[in-house]
């Protein structure tokens, strides 16, 4: 069992070449360029924020899977970290927006 | 597949043993820290998004030059530092100490450049009368959220630069292992990842559309 674990530890780092990381880097730069371009399109602010956060989520996924090696780790680590994080962020969103918008409307005008 | 074989696979995957995720304790610790820190930033970004969307007269002061050009360049610098970091980690696992230290120094220089450019950005804003408490456009929340978000991020970058400097020094001397470099890399990439959200939400949602 421990020998098996060590074998995995040593070859997990052979994945990911300079070429692969450079390609990811170029993609991240391209997505950033798209975001800057979109900032000058006169879109409605709710639509704009949705598109920008969507693109940023793609970038975050690229950074986590390649630069942070999450793609090359065991599935168990991904399952430990990411669903819990996504769940907590969704809870914040669900709790925060409706309540704060309701409070806005209760405010004396 | 015989039952014994099946049992063997199940055991290797689920019983865990000493190392259930096949990573060392430092790396697991850093990952857990990153998850908790990402929730701090999410809370701030979500509250910022609410304030931004619910304020109809939100100021849009950022011109192409200097603010947008500078912040885009800062994004480029931070992304490039992530590339040098990941190449440094690769070199560390190949046992090439000199190359690793060189990559780490390149990463540190990018980090310092990021903080320096950002500092000039802050000074420009202070010069325009934008402070965390008020600004000429009468929406004090603009300064509060801007300086709060970018300030907390800058603090992370500064800590990251110090952290990488210690790791580079120790790894060059043979005091630290490649795992230490990899764990510091995780932190650095996380700082980069957070900027990927702060840059569009803080800067690009407040560009002057002219």
Q: How would you explain this protein's 3D organization?
A:
The complex is a heterodimer of chains A (109) and B (210). Chain A is mainly alpha-helical and 109 residues long. Chain A has 4 helices and no strands. Chain A has helices spanning 2-11, 18-39, 45-67, 75-106. The longest helix of chain A is centred in the last third of the chain and has 32 residues, at 75-106. The radius of gyration of chain A is 20 Å and the shape is flat. The model of chain A is unreliable at 1-13 (pLDDT under 50). Chain B is mostly helical and 210 residues long. Chain B is built from 6 helices and no strands. Chain B has helices at 3-15, 25-54, 64-93, 97-127, 140-172, 178-203. In chain B, helix 3 (64-93) packs antiparallel against helix 4 (97-127) and helix 5 runs antiparallel to helix 6. Chain B starts with a helix and ends in a 7-residue tail after the last helix.
What radius of gyration of chain B results from the CA coordinates? 21 Å
Sheet with the most strands, sense and barrel status of chain B = none
Oligomer: heterodimer
Rounded mean pLDDT score of chain B: 90
Q: Which helices and strands, and how do they pair?
A:
The complex is a heterodimer of chains A (109) and B (210).
Chain A: H1 2-11, H2 18-39, H3 45-67, H4 75-106
Helix pairs in contact in A: 2-3
Chain B: H1 3-15, H2 25-54, H3 64-93, H4 97-127, H5 140-172, H6 178-203
């Amino acid at each position: 069992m421990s020998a098996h674990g060590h074998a995995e530890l040593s070859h997990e780092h052979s994945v990911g070449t300079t070429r692969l990381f450079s390609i990811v880097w170029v993609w991240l730069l391209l997505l950033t360029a798209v975001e800057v371009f979109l900032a000058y399109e006169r879109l409605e602010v709710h639509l704009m924020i949705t598109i920008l956060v969507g693109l940023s989520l793609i970038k975050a996924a690229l950074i986590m899977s390649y630069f942070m090696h999450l793609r090359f780790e065991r599935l168990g680590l991904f399952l430990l970290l990411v669903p819990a994080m996504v769940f907590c962020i969704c809870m914040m969103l669900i709790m925060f927006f409706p309540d704060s918008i309701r409070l806005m409307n209760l405010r004396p005008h | 597949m015989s039952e014994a074989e099946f049992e063997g696979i199940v055991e290797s995957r689920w019983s865990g043993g000493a190392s259930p995720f096949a990573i060392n304790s430092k790396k697991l610790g850093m990952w857990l820290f990153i998850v908790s820190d990402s929730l701090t930033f999410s809370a701030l970004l979500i509250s910022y998004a609410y304030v931004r969307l619910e304020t109809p007269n939100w100021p849009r002061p950022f011109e192409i030059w200097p603010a947008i050009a500078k912040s885009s360049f800062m994004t480029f610098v931070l992304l490039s530092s992530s590339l040098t970091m990941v190449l440094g980690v690769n070199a560390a696992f190949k046992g090439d100490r000199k190359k690793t230290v060189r990559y780490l120094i390149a990463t540190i220089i990018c980090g310092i450049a990021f903080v320096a450019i950002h500092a000039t950005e802050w000074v420009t804003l202070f010069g325009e009368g934008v402070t965390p408490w008020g600004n000429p456009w009468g929406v004090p929340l603009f300064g509060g959220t801007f300086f709060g978000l970018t300030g907390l991020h800058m603090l992370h970058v500064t800590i990251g630069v110090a952290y990488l400097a210690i790791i580079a020094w120790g790894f060059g001397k043979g005091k630290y292992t490649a795992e230490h470099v990899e764990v510091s890399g995780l932190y650095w990439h996380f700082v980069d990842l957070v900027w990927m959200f702060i840059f569009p939400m803080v800067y690009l949602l407040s560009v002057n559309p002219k």
